[in-house]
From TrEMBL:
Superkingdom, taxonomy of origin: Bacteria
InterPro entries: PQ-loop_rpt
Entry keywords, A to Z: Membrane, Transmembrane, Transmembrane helix
GO CC, one annotated term: membrane
Nucleus as UniProt keyword: no
Protein name from the UniProt record: PQ-loop repeat-containing protein
Membrane topology, from the record: Multi-pass membrane protein
Record's subcellular location: Membrane
Keyword Membrane: yes
Membrane-spanning segments: 6-25, 37-57, 63-83
Length: 89
């Protein structure tokens, strides 16, 4: 039951980044985004990813690994977009 709750909650948290990504792609503007904040989030999620992998290897925490990997990917995508659109400014 808790694994399902983790999976649903993690998917919701990961999908929460989608409106930001869409806004960046539509406006092609990242002027108000702070790259350092996203880099710190990436660092934190990366550390949690290492923990999630260790849990998954022992046979528990697969839901945590899946949702954490999703979060890692979307934050990395935001960072890539910030770097891409800042270079154009």
């Amino acid at each position: 039951m808790f694994a399902i709750m983790q999976l649903i909650g993690g998917v919701i948290l990961s999908l929460g980044w989608i409106p930001q990504i869409i806004q960046i792609l539509k406006s092609k503007s990242v002027a108000d985004l702070n790259l350092k904040s996203y880099l710190l989030m990436l660092l934190g999620i990366s550390l949690m990813e290492a923990y999630a992998i260790s849990l998954a290897v022992t046979g528990v925490g697969l839901a945590f690994l899946i949702t954490n990997t999703m979060s890692l990917c979307v934050v990395l995508l935001v960072i890539i977009l910030v770097l891409k659109y800042r270079a154009r400014s």
